[in-house]
Amino acid sequence: MVDSSPLIPGTHGRKQGHRVLCCCDSRKAVILINLIALAFSIYLIIINALNGTLRGDIVSIVVYCVSILFHLIVICSAIQFHRCAVIIAIIWQIIKIILVVIFLILNGTSGEYTKLTETAKRVYIISNVIWFGVTFIVLYAEMVYVREVKLGIMSRKYHEREKYSW
């Protein structure tokens, strides 16, 4: 019997690839999760500017802006099945995590955190916890996507039957 499936040879018409967060393939997940992370980054800039934690902090502002740029680039790259920009975004995510950890340590030891009101402290802690969670989910989805593009699981050729959903 000859496999006439337009999908990956030997799969007998079954979908291949990893389900990210048990809901969608890695390409859709990268697009959706980066859209959510983009909105969250914009939200954090606004919240932190309003509660005064961004006052004079050029490093945080640059990190937010570069992150927003990378979220947009990754969304466009995933739509086009490119992986190079996503790899660069993964590297940025790791650098960003390191920068934020260093910033949180320095901010906690410098006394800036103690000057905040109780409400601002709660918002600061909650937004950072959510930020780390979103960042790790973005990182996970992007790494799965890059792996699947490299293996040929995620490509235009084998993604033909998914056209109806986009």
Report on the structure:
- It contains 4 helices and no strands.
- It has 166 residues and is an all-alpha fold.
- Helix 1 packs antiparallel against helix 4 and helix 3 packs antiparallel against helix 4.
- The two termini are 33 Å apart.
Question: Which quaternary structure do these chains form?
Answer: single chain
What order do the SSEs take from the amino end to the carboxyl end, as H and E?
HHHH
Rg estimate, integer Å: 19 Å
Number of strands: 0
Low-confidence stretches: 1-14
The general outline is: elongated
β-sheet strand percentage: under 5%
- Fraction of residues in H or I helices: 55-70%
Whole-Å distance between the termini? Answer: 33 Å
Characteristic terms for this protein:
mainly alpha; 4 helices; 166 residues; disordered N terminus; 65% helix; elongated
Task: Give a concise summary.
The chain is mainly alpha-helical and 166 residues long.
Strand-helix topology:
Blueprint: H1 26-50, H2 58-79, H3 84-110, H4 118-151
